[in-house]
Amino acid sequence: MSIEVGNKVQGKVTGITNFGAFVELDGGKTGLVHISEVADNYVKDINDILSVGDEVTVKVMNVGDDGKIGLSIRKAVDRPRPERNYDRKPKYNKKPAAQSKQPEDFEDIMAKFLKDSDERLSTIKRQTESKRGGRGARRG
Questions:
Q1: What is the rounded CA–CA span in Å between residue 89 and residue 22?
Q2: Torsions phi, psi of 92, nearest 5?
Q3: Which helix or strand (DSSP H or E) is residue 63 part of?
């Protein structure tokens, strides 16, 4: 099988570094599996997963103009896709939440407005009173 981007090929680990593993492919060519492409989870030490001489299936990710071959072990593994159920219809509320409540009468609306207004005025008064005096500063 030729070495083209997207192909899955068999290879043998020939060297391990702290940033990845070198894999010898068919035809004597060597590619690099970066440490981030070894497994789906975080890999702190690549020696925990691979060792020299291991036979691995890799996917060719890129082939550079200079002959460098980028490989991935984690993308070479076929994972089943979760099935989707398109027969199920989404559930929608017939009435929005604002329409489902009983309409308020004028007195309730006015009482709510007065309460909010009083709260706002009291906070404004507290803020201005604290700025007027304090710490003995007199004008003179």
A1: 50
A2: -120, 145
A3: strand 55-63
- Per-residue confidence in pLDDT tens, the chain, 140 aa: 578 888 899 999 999 999 999 999 988 899 999 999 998 889 899 999 999 999 999 999 999 988 899 999 998 887 776 676 666 666 666 655 555 566 678 888 999 999 999 998 888 888 787 666 655 555 54
The CATH classification of domain 8-72, taken from the options 2.40.50.140, 3.20.20.140, 2.40.50.150, 3.10.450.320: 2.40.50.140
Alpha carbon distance 88, 84 (integer Å): 9
Tokens of 52: 């020299």
21 SS3 class? strand
Please tell me the distance from the alpha carbon of residue 28 to that of residue 26, in angstroms, as a whole number.
6
Instruction: Tally Cβ neighbours within 10 Å of residue 65.
Output: 5
